[in-house]
Fold this protein.
Amino acid sequence: MRDPRTVLALVSLALALLVSVPAAAEIYHWTDADGVDHYSTDLGRVPARYRPHVRVIDTPTPGVPSQPAPAPGTMLFTSGSPILAEAHVNGVPLTLLVDTGAARTVISPGALARGGFDLSGSRIVRIVGVTGVADVREVVVPRLDVAGAQVGPIAVIAHDVPSLRADGLLGRDVLDQFVLTIDAARGRAILSR
């Protein structure tokens, strides 16, 4: 039979190994005699003569964002891609494509229904766009939250936009209430008053 202290020590060691959290990796940077920069995650791979001059670079801890969240009114995008705005109607999240060429904001009937809007009693209006002419429903939304800002009440068009991978278009009826600044180099579009 084993000594109870040995068993306790082994159990404690096993528990410590189970709950240990991996540390953030370190990256070692050095420049060789020819001026070439080198990076490694293993200090043992750094030649001994360069170790006194190595610079340690901490990597971000997994799960912690490396950049702060964007300020209210800021929409992030990738160069060459459409600008998508996060929006909410009656607390229901939507994604709207920023369309400076659209006179009106368009939200799909399905997205409006998710927000609790009954379209059956809404006014029918005619719209003319690049895809043609259509008779659609106009719905008054008491409040539309867009990129951290609020507008409303506002009459939006209930219509599905073909081949759009968003819940609708954010048109000039909303955009004209703000200054829209597009910083393509930094991939930011900012709505400000």
Residues 7 and 13 are 10 Å apart (CA to CA). The mean pLDDT is 78. Helices lie at 4-19, 109-114, 172-175.
